[in-house]
Amino acid sequence: MSQYKDTVLVSGGAGYIGTHTAVALVEAGYDVVVIDNFSNSEPSAVEGLEKIIGRKVAFEEVDTCDLEALRGVFERHEFSTVIHFAAYKAVGESMTEPLKYYQNNLVSYMNILQLMKEFKRPNVLFSSSATVYGDAEVLPVTEETPRQPATSPYGNTKQIAEDILRDCCRAYEGFFGIALRYFNPIGAHPSALIGELPRGVPNNLIPFVTQTAAGVRECLSVFGNDYDTPDGTCLRDYIDVLDLAKAHVAAVDRMVDHKMKEKYEIFNVGTGTPVSVLELITRFMKATGVDLPYKIVGRRAGDVPAVWADTALANKELGWKAERDLDDTLRASWNWEKRVRGIK
Ligand code: UD1
Question: How many CB atoms lie within 10 A of CB 335?
Fold first, then answer.
């Protein structure tokens, strides 16, 4: 008998959500095999994860687009479940370099699926995104809310990947899939040993916020205050990455314990609470005591005015709900930024 509940392959396990999920899996009694090609992460992330769990993890530097290299991982390690995080995620870049996104995000994914089938490993957990809902007519969005046509190649890779997983689960015996649709992941581990490490100019709000607070950027630009929302700025559902990581554990439990009701299932992973950009800025300043210079600028192309999750299905079926307090989350983001910048 193994001392572990099971083993999970975590692709992209050196990344932001991957590292936090690997920690949560280990804390829940799973063993993990972590693979990453460091295309958008650093070896220090694996070191941080190992420090938190107090032991080494099985790590291999592998590009998931390399089928033969990936096959080696399957040959060397037993696992029932893969969580596939490895993907590019910059929406803007995907508009100017669509092939880079289709090539990387879909080839790596097909390789994973192909090998899961070949090696008869049953469970695939896929990182999807609330981006599939686009500009939804009715809020909050449930898993039944129709997907909107993707407005970026990045978003399209998420939709295509969901459909591929659905089709595989339908066609192949002993093949099960869960897609988790993440809302806006923020925060960092309280140890500040792992967190989001954007290379170059960030794409998302929180790295801009913490970098501005750290003085790396002069001023935060708020993209539009003329939306049809209470304060005119966009509404999002900001979910703490620790809560998000726990949702993965709940989904893995569901697969490993044979609790799935369908062969392919989808869950929203959010808090269910909309927060505006201005509210987030105010909360950040209050929670950290740091001044955040900001200015209102024009809307950013492609932004939807509002999106937040109906979390009833995840609450009921996964037995999971977001618990972390937003102020703690924002403080954790700030502590992480301070550590990265060497600020006391
Ligand atoms: C973005 C992507 C989404 C992707 C997700 C991954 C777009 C249009 N959407 O979501 O597809 O799945 O990241 O994390 O790129 N904001 C500012 N100033 C800034 C940065 C952002 O005001 O400097 C605002 C945005 O207008 C938005 C909110 O902050 O209202 C959140 O932005 P962001 O963190 O980029 O997330 P999304 O756009 O929701």
Answer: 20
Q: Is the CB of 302 under 6 A from ligand 1?
A: yes
Query: CB–CB of 196/142 below 8 Å?
Result: no
Q: What's the CA-to-centroid distance between 225 and ligand 1, angstroms?
A: 14
CA of 131 to the centre of ligand 1 (A): 10
With a 6 Å cutoff on the Cβ, whether 191 touches ligand 1 is: no
Query: What is the distance between the alpha carbons of residues 2 and 286, in angstroms, rounded to a whole number?
Result: 47
pLDDT digits (tens, 9 = 90+) for 26-74: 999 999 999 999 999 999 999 999 999 999 999 999 999 999 999 999 9
Query: Which ligand 1 atom sits closest to the C-alpha of 303?
Result: 8
Q: How confident is the model at residue 199 (pLDDT cuts 50, 70, 90)?
A: confident
Pairing verdict, β 31-36 and 7-11: parallel
